[in-house]
C-alpha cells in the first residue's frame, strides 16, 4: 500500500562539525589528485511536538583522543581531520540557543566515526539507529573496527540502554511509486521523518526524507559524497570501495538516487559531506 500519511513539516538546519581531507578523485570520478575538504555534516531538525532532533553529529575532540595510538591512529592518518572545539555540534547548537537537554532524539545514519563523533555530548537524547548498521560493528575488535570506520568509544557508555533500533521504534510503510526504494520507516507515525534504506557505503545505512515549509529534502548520508557527483553521474573511484560494505549495493543506491531526482526534480538531495550545503568553517547555518 502506498504511503498516504499527512506530512508534518519540520524546521531544518544544516551544520558541520569539522571536516576531513581526501584527494578529490577518490570521491568524484575524474576529479583532481589534490586534497579536497569534506565537511562532517549533521542536521538539526525541529519537530512541532517532538522538539529538537539531530541526524548524525559530526566529529568531536574525542575522535582526536581516541585515535592517538594504533590501530585507530591509522584512521586519522588516512583521513586527516580538522576540527576546532567551537565547531563541535554541542557548541554550535549552544550558539543557536539550543541546550544539550533540548535535544530529545539523535538519529544515526550509520556508525562511521564522522557521524557518531559527538554522540556522547547528548546524554539526555534517545538514540535511534538502523539495527543492521549496529550489528555490523558492535562486536568488532580494534583492527576490523578501524577498517570499518567505527570507534566504539565515541558512543555513550550506556548506548545499549538509551538507544533503540529504528525498526522497533517506527512503523514500516510502503512508498510512492516515484521513490525507487522500499522498506521505508515512519519514525514518529506522522509522516514527518521517513527513514529510507540506502545500502552500500555502510551496512544498514539510512537517509531521512522530510519536508520543511519551503522544500522536500532527502538527507542521503554517504550514499554520495557530493551533489555534484549525483548531478554529473560521477560515482567514486573504485579505490573508495575499500571503505564500503558493499560496492555493488553502493552503485545501485547511487543510480537509484539519480533516478529519483529525475522523477522528482523538486526533491533536494543533501549528502552529508557536500560543501554546497555544509560550510567547512561552520560560519553559516543553511536552512531549507
What's the SSE blueprint?
Blueprint: E1 11-23, H1 24-27, E2 35-47, E3 51-55, H2 61-66, H3 73-78, E4 81-82, H4 89-95, E5 103-107, H5 113-116, E6 126-129, H6 131-135, H7 142-147, H8 159-162, E7 163-165, H9 166-169, E8 171-173, E9 184-186, E10 194-197, E11 206-211, E12 216-219, H10 227-231, H11 247-263, E13 267-270, E14 286-287
Describe this structure in words.
The structure is a single chain. The longest helix is centred in the last third of the chain and has 17 residues, at 247-263. Strands 1, 2, 3, 4, 5, 6, 7 and 14 form an eight-stranded mixed β-sheet that branches. This protein has a six-stranded mixed β-sheet with strand order 8-9-10-11-12-13. The chain contains eleven helices and 14 strands. It has 288 residues and is of the alpha/beta class. It has helices at 24-27, 61-66, 73-78, 89-95, 113-116, 131-135, 142-147, 159-162, 166-169, 227-231, 247-263; strands at 11-23, 35-47, 51-55, 81-82, 103-107, 126-129, 163-165, 171-173, 184-186, 194-197, 206-211, 216-219, 267-270, 286-287. Helix content is 24%, strand content 25%. A hairpin with an 8-residue loop joins strand 10 and strand 11 (206-211). It has one domain (11-287): Ribonuclease Z/Hydroxyacylglutathione hydrolase-like (Metallo-beta-lactamase, Chain A, 4-Layer Sandwich), CATH 3.60.15. Belongs to the metallo-beta-lactamase superfamily. Its cofactor is Zn(2+).
Amino acid at each position: 500500500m502506498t504511503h498516504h500519511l499527512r506530512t508534518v513539516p519540520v524546521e531544518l538546519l544544516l551544520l558541520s562539525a569539522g571536516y576531513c581531507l581526501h584527494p578529490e578523485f577518490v570521491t568524484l570520478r575524474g576529479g583532481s589528485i589534490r586534497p579536497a575538504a569534506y565537511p562532517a555534516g549533521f542536521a538539526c531538525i525541529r519537530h512541532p511536538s517532538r522538539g529538537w532532533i539531530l541526524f548524525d553529529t559530526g566529529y568531536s575532540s574525542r575522535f582526536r583522543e581516541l585515535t592517538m595510538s594504533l590501530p585507530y591512529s591509522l584512521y586519522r592518518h588516512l583521513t586527516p581531520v580538522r576540527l576546532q572545539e567551537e565547531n563541535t555540534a554541542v557548541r554550535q547548537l549552544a550558539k543557536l540557543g539550543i541546550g544539550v537537554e533540548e535535544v530529545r532524539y539523535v538519529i544515526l545514519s550509520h556508525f562511521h566515526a564522522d557521524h557518531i563523533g559527538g554522540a556522547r555530548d547528548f546524554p539526555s537524547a534517545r538514540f535511534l539507529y538502523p539495527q543492521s548498521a549496529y550489528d555490523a560493528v558492535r562486536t568488532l575488535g580494534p583492527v576490523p573496527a578501524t577498517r570499518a570506520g567505527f570507534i566504539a568509544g565515541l558512543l555513550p557508555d550506556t548506548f545499549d540502554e538509551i538507544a533503540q533500533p529504528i525498526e522497533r521504534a517506527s512503523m514500516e510503510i510502503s512508498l510512492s511509486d516515484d521513490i525507487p526504494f522500499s522498506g521505508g520507516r515512519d519514525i514518529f507515525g506522522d509522516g514527518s521523518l521517513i527513514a529510507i534504506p540506502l545500502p552500500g557505503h555502510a551496512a544498514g545505512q539510512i537517509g531521512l526524507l522530510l519536508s520543511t515549509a519551503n522544500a522536500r529534502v532527502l538527507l542521503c548520508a554517504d550514499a554520495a559524497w557530493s551533489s555534484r557527483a549525483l548531478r554529473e553521474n560521477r560515482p567514486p573511484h573504485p579505490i573508495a570501495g575499500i571503505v564500503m560494505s558493499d560496492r555493488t549495493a553502493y552503485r545501485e543506491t547511487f543510480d537509484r538516487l539519480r533516478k529519483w531526482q529525475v522523477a522528482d526534480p523538486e526533491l533536494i538531495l543533501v549528502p552529508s559531506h557536500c560543501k554546497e550545503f555544509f560550510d567547512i568553517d561552520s560560519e553559516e547555518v543553511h536552512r531549507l
